[in-house]
Specification:
Length: 317
């Protein structure tokens, strides 16, 4: 997200702000700087620029052993007509991604993050029930348990997989896909779920509660199965930062990253440790932390939905 237009992004992440979408440029939508975003024209059968809104938030990349060079990319897309998940495919080495389909559903009034479970199925979080107005404020400030997870199955139908989550935020899966992890920011907790095979609904297995830490996003280290959870020490400072970032602010939402190690018996949840704490100067409102490996070098890359840069932490244990 760091590469996109921060001004435009702020408008779709804060739908209550006064905003005239007529001035929105196609380029504002494109946060994927190195790849063209294309679709197949139904009239000429040629690849043409993607014609829909492309206002991204969380995303995921999926591939499998059948053809590891064909990637599926799924994006939360805050289209002006409503929340959606846009699915694209990409051949490794190609200079573009090609639109496959956009899933729209009334179950996605405020989608946040998505995890792909196959080329055409996913789980997506919906953080709040009311995307706009006073009810949006009430939900966020009072941490109402009105978020949910949506399952989109192979039949092309969206359903509620689990409801009653206080601000369902980041979502990720375990390396073998057997567990789905969701950050419930307003609880604040990380919940581990087991997907059921018949209808994709989610069965809670364990919950890890936090004190003095509001989890935002989750990434999974596919080599070890550990979770990296990024979050904030002061959520109100974060909300102030997000509101004021375009006009200048002295808010400095301190951030932290915690590592959760799943116990062999998942009903016991996770062992938890602190990876880093920062005062917010490095990267205000850090929302994402992912591990990057180059041979034996490990780094953590930090990102934020509001920032115009990423930060890198070297020398990790
Ligand atoms: C959350 O982190 C995952 C990496 O696990 C990333 O793919 C996703 O885009 C992030 N979501 C947001 C909203 O930044």
């Amino acid at each position: 997200m760091a590469c996109g237009n921060r001004d435009a992004r702020t408008r779709w992440l804060h739908p209550d702000m006064h905003y005239n979408p007529v001035s929105e440029q196609l380029d504002d939508h494109n946060n994927i700087r190195s790849l063209q975003v294309l679709e197949l024209s139904s009239t000429t059968d040629k690849l043409v620029p993607f014609s829909q809104d492309f206002r991204v938030h969380g995303f995921d990349i999926y591939w499998d052993n059948l053809d590891p060079a064909e990637l599926t990319l799924m994006f939360v897309n805050h289209q002006r007509s409503g929340g959606a998940i846009s699915i694209f495919k990409h051949r490794v080495g190609a200079g573009h991604i090609q639109h496959v389909k956009t899933v729209r559903s009334h179950l996605l009034p405020s989608p946040n993050d998505v995890v792909a479970t196959s080329r055409n199925t996913f789980y997506a979080t919906n953080d709040i029930k009311h995307a706009r107005g006073i009810m949006r404020k009430i939900e966020i400030y009072f941490g109402m348990p009105w978020g949910h997870v949506v399952y989109y199955g192979p039949e092309g139908v969206a359903s509620k997989a689990f409801s009653g989550i206080p601000y369902a935020n980041g979502i990720a899966k375990s390396p073998d896909g057997g567990l789905i992890y969701v950050a419930a920011s307003s609880e604040p907790s990380v919940i581990a779920f087991k997907p059921t095979h018949d209808d994709g609904s989610l069965q809670p297995v364990s919950k890890t509660l936090f004190r003095g830490f509001v989890p935002d996003n989750i990434s999974v280290d596919t080599l070890t199965g550990e979770l990296l959870v990024s979050g904030f020490l002061n959520a109100l400072e974060l909300l102030r930062y997000n509101r004021e970032v375009l006009y200048g602010t002295n808010a400095r939402p301190a951030g932290a990253v915690r590592r959760l190690l799943p116990f062999a018996d998942m009903r016991k949840g996770f062992a938890e440790e602190s990876v880093l704490i920062h005062d917010g100067t490095l990267l205000p409102a850090t929302t994402t932390a992912v591990i990057q490996r180059r041979n034996r070098v490990r780094r953590i890359v930090l990102g934020s939905v509001m920032a115009d840069h990423v930060a890198v932490c070297e020398g990790l244990q």
